[in-house]
Amino acid sequence: MTKKDLPACPVEITMGLIGEKWKVLIIRDLLTGTKRFGELRKSVTGITQKVLTNNLRQMEAFGLVKRKVYAEVPPRVEYSLTETGLSLKPILDSMVKWGNEYREKSSAKQYPPEYLMVIFFYFLLFLRLYFIIFIILKLTIITKIIEHPITIPLLIFSIS
Questions:
Q1: What pLDDT shows up at residue 97?
Q2: Beta-carbon neighbour count of residue 30 at 10 Å?
Q3: Which of 31, 56, 103, 125 is 20 to 30 A from 1, comparing alpha carbons?
Q4: What is the largest CA-CA distance in the chain?
Q5: What is the pLDDT of residue 127?
Q6: Per-position DSSP letters for 69-103, written without gaps between them
Q7: Where in 4-155 does DSSP place strands (E)?
Q8: What's the pLDDT at 132?
Q9: Phi/psi class of residue 20: alpha, beta or left (left: φ > 0; alpha: ψ in -120 to 50)?
Q10: Does residue 89 register a pLDDT over 60?
């Protein structure tokens, strides 16, 4: 994304720069300080080496990340946030706050006690009706057996 093809909407600009799944997580980990490639790969769970490399290159091109290569054997590369990258900290702080509040609200309101009491009441009502029907059916069968002992095999056959 070059300056000449930046969208007019500031939210669209931000989403274009950090809207992909992994970029916010990479920024989150670089906010704590400089990291090597292997450290980032371990801390961003589930990211592949190729995807991490591509995201870091894009973020470097956008001016969010700086890459420092040391002339050593084996070569060592470190990544850190630029001033522009560090300026995203308030956005990530807001995301952390919102995520924590959402987690608390969604877990607290998952099943309110009143709802569970209503379910339990209907369950007990269903059990009572089931046993009443079972007892009535059983008494009906016993009555028919007593009244007509010869039709016992026919009755059993018709029930099953």
A1: 93
A2: 25
A3: 31
A4: 103
A5: 76
A6: EE--SS-EEEEEE-HHHHTTHHHHHHHHHHHHHHH
A7: 35-36, 65-70, 76-81
A8: 80
A9: beta
A10: yes
